[in-house]
Amino acid sequence: MQNNRQPAPISSKALSFRLLALAVAMFGFGFLLVPIYDAFCEITGFGGKTADSAAVDVVEMVDQSREVSLEFVTTVNQYAPWEFRSSTDGMTVHPGGIYEATFIARNLTDKHKTAQAVPSVAPQQAASFFKKLECFCFTKQEFMPGEEKEMPVRFIVDSDLPEYIDTITLSYTFFDTARLTDDSAEMAHPEHPASKTGSHNVTR
To answer: How far apart are the first and last CA of the chain?
Structure first.
């Protein structure tokens, strides 16, 4: 005799439970995307992102037969009360060698200020080969009223840098941390005029 029995229908309670479990799983996956993406950028240099801590155990042979041009670009975030520049427009380096560049910032106000520098490397393919050993961008910088600081960055351009890359641009954007906090709050309220407009001051 042929069995014509149909599967029992899923109860509404069981279906609701399955849908809830699916929603929780999707939320968890979305939550993990951000750290996964950050790790991907840090490893590959995608998007020009550089590491936010010092490189360790970096011992390389200097490639004296090859030269790479470095360009320095400094940017002050919108309305930030700073003067910010590099001591030189650039330098020529040999891959594998340890070098140091100096950046200068001055608090233009009569108040205590805290700043944070955010680095970027272009082209993005070079980011993972630019290794910072010491950098003022690793921590927030405290400034007394009117204070000027010389801030070093020590680095190595990895000898494995692809041959087709002969110029690297190292950029820093200088943020007033108090203003950055205010901007984040304004972005949470789109009706605020400051969330609709913005500008940057760029110096070389």
So the answer is: 88
